[in-house]
Amino acid sequence: MWHDPNVGIVEIILVAAGLAMDAFAVSLAAGSLEEVRGGRAAFRLSFHFGLFQFLMPVIGWYAGTAVVAFIASVDHWVAFGLLAYVGGRMIGSGLNPDARSFRGDPSRGATLVILSLATSIDALAVGLSLAMVQVSIWYPSVVIGIVTAGLSLAGVRLGDRLGRVFGKRMEIAGGIVLLGIGARILLSHLLAHGSP
């Protein structure tokens, strides 16, 4: 059952908000792009970010210690690589007035999967933690997914407004944000564990 005296709804909402911050920042950056305009693109980004944040704790809960420990040994490098790739493209496009960050819409296809994975991979450990304290995963995962989707939608909308005002400069700023998120994920892991 969900009820556990040590893990209440307030704690789950705080965990959900913490996990959603990366998705919010990426949504803000993505929303500033010309390719990501309109309600459909905003829905796709927020839906997929929420979906991945819902699924990752479930996977962590069922996977068990061995699998999560293996993934945790490389997840920070994967997240950094994915965010650095997308961020680097955005910066390059922002510096070149004739270039575009992506050939197509980054709220579709492989780029959408890359961003969704990069922003949700740390939620695996949350699922494992909830399994260890014997808390059912479904309710927390739904809350995490909904909070992430809502904050992602807000990020896309805000990014759209900023992109219209600041144009290509916002693309550069968005790319820097993505690089910063990737670096933070990598450094926080390396400093916490003292080794790669």
Given the C-alpha coordinates, what overall shape results?
A: globular
Determine the strand fraction and express it as a percent band: under 5%
From the structure provided, what is the oligomeric state, counting identical versus distinct chains? single chain
Instruction: Note the total helix count.
Output: 8
What can be said about the biggest beta sheet?
Answer: none
Number of individual domains: 1
Order of helices and strands: HHHHHHHH
Share in helix: over 70%
The end-to-end distance, rounded to whole angstroms, is 37 Å
Compile the SSE list and pairings.
Elements: H1 9-31, H2 39-63, H3 65-72, H4 75-95, H5 109-120, H6 123-132, H7 138-166, H8 168-193
What does this structure look like?
With 196 residues, the chain is mostly helical. It is 79% helix and 0% strand. It has helices at residues 9-31, 39-63, 65-72, 75-95, 109-120, 123-132, 138-166, 168-193. Helix 7 runs antiparallel to helix 8 (168-193).
Would you kindly provide a brief summary of this structure?
This protein is mainly α. 79% of the residues lie in helices and 0% in strands.
List keywords for this structure.
196 residues; mainly alpha
